[in-house]
Amino acid sequence: xxxxxxxxxxxxxxxxxxxxxxxxxxxxxxxxxxxxxxxxxxxxxxxxxxxxxxxxxxxxxxxxxxxxxxxxxxxxxxxxxxxxxxxxxxxxxxxxxxxxxxxxxxxxxxxxxxxxxxxxxxxxxxxxxxxxxxxxxxxxxxxxxxxxxxxxxxxxxxxxxxxxxxxxxxxxxxxxxxxxxxxxxxxxxxxxxxxxxxxxxxxxxxxxxxxxxxxxxxxxxxxxxxxxxxxxxxxxxxxxxxxxxxxxxxxxxxxxxxxxxxxxxxxxxxxxxxxxxxxxxxxxxxxxxxx
Length: 291
Fold this sequence. Notes:
Blueprint: E1 5-9, E2 14-15, E3 18-19, H1 21-34, E4 38-40, H2 53-67, E5 74-76, H3 82-95, E6 99-103, H4 112-125, E7 130-134, H5 136-139, H6 145-150, E8 157-162, H7 167-177, E9 182-185, H8 191-197, E10 201-204, H9 211-222, H10 226-242, H11 250-258, H12 275-288
Parallel strand pairs: 1-4, 1-10, 5-6, 6-7, 7-8, 8-9, 9-10
Antiparallel strand pairs: 2-3
């Protein structure tokens, strides 16, 4: 399966400390109506690190159920424990997810060989399309393009969400892995330059609040209409910047709250957005026309 276009890294809405299932259902329907090309529940933006295993499983099951096969669901199922990642990925498959997104193990700081063995074992343990996820700013480890290329013989590894922020690394990745692997942007602000090099789309934070426009930008770039894509990029760029004024997903949840989509509640150790940044966020949303 080829994952492409604007794939939302969806937030997990909370209400009074619990997952707000009604708000989550409404958000999934919002994306279906807005032309989003895929949904990632329980990623970093979904606060997977502070969900219990039961909550994690429930969020994935609910997303799959509401999506109802109308849109691909790529379940976040990564962990810094290989066995735990396998267990979560097995659950994603049993829940009916179309694929799984697997972040590089965080904190452990594995070597390139350790990363290779980690993904190889998951690939051999669960027969589901797998998307690797490289984001060294979050995990403390950068997976090199050469390591990704070593994994290409494992046929169920179908993509990588690349969030290193390095255009040169993206170029190397596409050079080594070509059409065999869907390279997907993990950084909204450089999705367009990544797509100019051959990336297939984005797993996007901004798509939470401007899903139709992110879908239009990635579709224009994919069709080769770079002038149109550039117009959308320039329009969206202030949102990309504003949504990272504080640690993701603090600003995007605050934005969704201002838009009336869900509460701005995040789980400790994340905390509520500062008053100053909330004012800047509100100004950006108003300027864009979302408020």
